[in-house]
Amino acid sequence: MLSYRHSFHAGNFADVLKHTVEVLILEALKQKPAPFVYHDTHSAAGRYSLSSEHAEKTAEFVDGIGRIWQQREVPEALLPYIDVIKQLNHKGKLQHYPGSPVVARQVIREQDRMQMTELHPADTKLLQQEFHRDPQARVYQQDAYQGLKALLPPKEKRGLVLLDPSYEIKTEYRQVVKEIADTYRRFATGIYALWYPVIDRRTIDKLHRDFVGTGIKKILLIELCVKGDTTERGMTGTGMVVINPPWKLTEQMDSILPWLKEELAQDGEAFYRLEWLVSE
User: Fold this and answer.
1) The model's pTM
2) Is position 112 annotated as part of the catalytic site?
3) Where are the domains of the chain?
4) Catalytic pick from 40, 164, 182, 210?
5) For the residues of the chain, what is the DSSP string, one character each?
6) What is the pLDDT of residue 7?
């Protein structure tokens, strides 16, 4: 699908959750000296100007990263993510927001690798410019799921696979579970983090049931809803399904989610979820 552009949504509350989880997983992988690979299936442009026409049109970052990045009292586990944002905004003014590839590039070490797939030609070009001559990064103009088959398992046998589909077609909710399950059978030692929007609760419940039905163990659910569930149109929340999460991730998110709920709530029915879909 080529109509979706993340530049309209950069820095919103969904990005805050997604990139917080991404940073915490990468930091956990760094606790062992062995190298790892970061694989991004829907990489988009890499970084975004918050003064661009797209970002200013929706201004979603105002109720996302804009609310929290300069807060003085922040949960300790959230600080690595906040540091990434501050590295891109040195003068104390929020002007830029990183996509997940740039987030990862700020965190990984010299011995680690990045491989990124993106199908949109304009975003692929921007991504290639971002990582031009970077020896640790490879950009592929390729379908996300073809990239999973072609590039995984990695030689390192450890790493993070981040999946961030647009879900423009409803069948992608079902397809992404199948693709993860197929990849897991070839790369069971990897960590998988799937982002999803909460628009229709029935769809999300079905997504969770499909994951349970794969037979995969150690599947953690992380969800942040800035509004109560509704039958009206629009995204009220966001979530991550994490397979093989680092052992500290549950404890870290347990300290972060209540704070994010309070800071990013858009109505009085905001809530969060942190639970195992499937345990050991």
Assistant:
1) 0.95
2) no
3) 13-44+109-278
4) 164
5) --S--GGGTTTSHHHHHHHHHHHHHHHHHTTSSS--EEEESS-TTSEEETTSHHHHHH-GGGGTHHHHTT-SS--GGGHHHHHHHHHT-TTSS--EEE-HHHHHHHH--TT-EEEEEE--HHHHHHHHHHTTT-TTEEEEES-HHHHHHHH-S-TTS-EEEEE-----STTHHHHHHHHHHHHHHH-TTSEEEEEEEES-HHHHHHHHHHHHHTT-S-EEEEEEESS---SSSS--EEEEEEES--TTHHHHHHHHHHHHHHHH-SSTT-EEEEEEEE--
6) 65
